[in-house]
Amino acid sequence: MFRVTSNTLFRNSLRDIQSTAEAFARAQQQVSSGQRLQQASDDPAAATIGLRERAEIRAVDRYRDANDSVDSRLRVTDAVLSDIISSITTAQTRAVSGRTTVLTPEQREAVALEIDGAKEALFTAVNTSYRGIYLFAGADNTSAPYTRAGATISAYQGDANVVQVDVSRTSSAAVTVDGGSLMQGSASSDLFRSLDALAAAVRSGDMAGIDSGLSALEEAFNRVTSAQSRVGATLSALPAEKARLDELRRASDTRRSQAEEISLAEAISEMSRAQQAQQVAIAAAGTSQKASLMDYLR
User: Fold this and answer.
1) How confident is the model at residue 44 (pLDDT cuts 50, 70, 90)?
2) Strands (E), 121-214
3) 12 vs 3, 9, 285, 291, 295, CA distance in Å?
4) Principal place where this protein is found (predicted)?
5) What's this model's pTM, rounded to 2 decimal places?
6) How far is the C-alpha of 75 from the C-alpha of 114, rounded, in Å?
């Protein structure tokens, strides 16, 4: 009967020592890693929270990256639209200077050449690409919206669809522009054809033709400034969206940290308690063995 009791006490002592040793080792690992959880089984509920919040952080980071990408792309678009407006303004100014009967043929040719130069600048601008994407080709943005054969510029080659990029779960931003609506809109001919006609009118001194060209330029100016206003509105909204995403990320990371991590002070305190528990278990095992031996000798 004594041997059974002694063996039971011994096994219980070993179990206590092993349990406290594992707790002490786990506490040491927490101190060195700063992590509350070393494996999911340490706290399944906390591990589930950690997994959920990590997934949320990854999703938020994707939106933040998209926000940054949209911001960069639209800043390029905004700059190009400014260039287009500048070219239109140049053509308007030169057309006005050519609307007079006192110019010599040489002077008219010089004015017409400047209008031709504005057309070339427009062609270059509207074919701007950013990271392989043509900004003014609509959704068909892997090919240039306008091409040319010699001095002849093609009709619009893109489409009227606009690419939208999600910058949050509830918001998206247009990152391309329909170049056809920009260069032509509802007019009977696009801006390139209008500039060709305007340059020809200046060369020939055709005042009615110059007036028609100026009207076309005014309509184009309004279309482009309207497009730039839309781009500007989107750019203005992005910082607030980015701030909301940053706040969501901080909140999610805080919840993840609370579930997975442990402060150094708390970890050291836990390690100290685990060490004391281990020492108590070892001491208790020694005491029980001595008591059992004395009982046997009696």
Assistant:
1) confident
2) 129-130, 133-134, 148-149, 152-153, 164-166, 172-174
3) 14, 5, 9, 15, 18
4) other
5) 0.75
6) 28
Q: Which residues of 174-212 are buried (b: 16+ CB within 10 A; e: fewer)?
A: bbbbbbbbbbbbeeeebbbbbbbbbbebbbeebeebbee
Cα–Cα distances in Å, from 276 out to 21, 69, 262, 279? 10, 55, 20, 5
Provide the 3-class DSSP secondary structure of residue 261.
Answer: strand
23: its two tokens: 């707790």
Query: The tokens 């100014």 sit on which residue?
Result: 93
Q: Are 175 and 73 in contact (CB under 8 A)?
A: yes
**Token pair belonging to 78:** 């905004």
Q: Quote the mean pLDDT of the chain.
A: 85
3-state SS track over 77-115: HHHHHHHHHHHHHHHHHHHHHHCCCCCCHHHHHHHHHHH
Amino acid type, 34: G
- In the block, tokens 């309509």 appear at 219
Q: Which residues pair with 165 in a beta bridge?
A: 173
**What average pLDDT does this structure show over 219-233?**
97
Residue in the structure block whose two tokens are 């054969």: 149
Residue in this structure with the two tokens 């002070």, named with its chain if needed: 265
Q: What is the rounded distance in angstroms from the CA atom of residue 83 to the CA atom of residue 70? A: 20
Query: In this predicted model, what pLDDT tens digit does every residue of 154-197 receive, in sequence order?
Result: 999 999 998 899 999 999 999 989 999 999 999 999 999 999 99
Stretch 82-100: mean pLDDT: 96
- Report whether 56 contacts 253 (CB < 8 A): no
| Token pair listed for 1 | 């009967």
